[in-house]
Amino acid sequence: MQRYDLRHLHDDFYSRMGELINNNLKVGEVGIFLFEVGDYSSIQKSADFIKELGHELMNSLKFNEVDWTIVVKKVDAKTIAKRKEEEKKDKEKAEAKAKAEVKSDQEAEIKTKEDSKKTSTKKTTIRKKATTAKKKGK
Fold it and tell me: Given 33, 54, 72, 85, which is the most exposed site by the fewest CB atoms within 10 A?
């Protein structure tokens, strides 16, 4: 287990953290990274960065009022490749689902317009029949 203090880098710690994970940690080893929070966006960015690298974010917690700690486990290249492939498949599934939903929504809109048109036509026919019946009654 290695501990790295990146507080002196302020918001520019991502590349250094990636460098430390890739070069200083062994596969399966855990690294603890301490960094300055700032506006709190760095917390989510750091989690996204670790996910992008393909390693395992084991924990993320507040260290004190201005600092944050994340715990990262370095994984092997095979696991990283597998995770990226799974992420790619999940993205493709999500895109296909979104396209299907759009198509379904479009079909429903077309059906609603057609039904509305049919209803309008029926009302017009009923009015014409009523008007004709009144005229015959006079």
Answer: 85
Per-residue model confidence as pLDDT tens digits over 95-108: 999 999 998 888 88
User: Do 70 and 59 meet the contact criterion of CB atoms below 8 Å apart?
Assistant: yes
> Which of the four pLDDT bands, split at 50, 70 and 90, describes residue 118?
confident
* Contact call for residues 69 and 63 (beta carbons, < 8 A): yes
Helix 41-53 with 14-24: angle, nearest 10 deg? 30
119-129 average pLDDT score:
69
Tokens, residue 23:
């070069």
The pLDDT tens digits for 13-70 are 999 999 999 999 999 999 999 999 888 888 999 999 999 999 999 999 998 988 999 9
User: Nearest CA to 42 among 17, 2, 12, 63?
Assistant: 12
